[in-house]
Amino acid sequence: MPEQSGQDLRLAVLIDADNASRTAMRDVMAEIAVYGTPTIKRIYGDWTTPNMTSWKPILLENAISPIQQYGYTTGKNSTDSAMIIDAMDILYTGRVDGFVLVSSDSDFTRLAVRLREAGMKVYGMGERKTPSAFIVACDKFVYIEVIRDAAEKARTGETRKPEPPKLERPAKEPAARGSRRQKKAEEPPPVPAEPEPAQSVPPEVIMLIADSLEMLGDEDGYVLMGDLGNLLVKKQPDFDPRNFGFTKLTNLVRALDRFEVDIRSTSQPHVKHIYVRDKRRK
Fold first, then answer.
1. Which secondary-structure segment (H or E) carries 48?
2. What are the distances in angstroms from CA 55 to CA 50, 167, 208?
């Protein structure tokens, strides 16, 4: 089977209702659309219990199919086995190219490993409390808190450019003799876009970027930004510029004095390639 681009991936979205955020589900589904097309969307839980009632409008809004799994034993999460069995059934049908496991439960670690062994792309989405074993078992892991914060900023308009200040109109003066009309008030100068928030990036993340550049760099040390991003996620599946307050990797790298960004033109007028290198490279 030829390799498909991220946008063409057919994804099976499997959600553990006992370990998933209800308030962030709409934003989670929007995040999933970035990685591919969710052709199967299922959520697992005991829908006979009263505390699951609030899920109903969320499932209808996002066209997610609820899968009933009774809690046979008190205090035991019974949805895990049903979700794992369904995942293996879907795997053997060959109808999808990847899986999205929405849970913060480490019990799905072995499932993620098995799906990757079968050549599937595996994306994990859970809260920051998710054990590292499950995180590293996925191709990429995204924190629910990061997804929620990014969506909230977009909704409140924090990413939009600020409006230009209003100028007070001066009092009208009598027109000079011979002039046909008064001069129009000058337009206010455009306000530049706000820079990315200056937030501290941990030293270990800076070293992760530097080591990756050393591995991929050409004779002059330059690396295509897209290649750098791919390697960072392979090394650390939960790596995401949004974890540090930046919308894109390019913005994060530019904020660090250690690295140099070079934008190069191509034969196509509207296509540019972004390269980065470590200034300390010997």
1. none
2. 10, 50, 40
